[in-house]
Amino acid sequence: MSVEQLIAEIKLLPQEQRMQVVDAILDEDDSWIPESLKQGMADFEAGRFVDMETAMTQPPPGQQDEV
Question: Domain spans of the chain?
Answer without folding.
Answer: 1-47
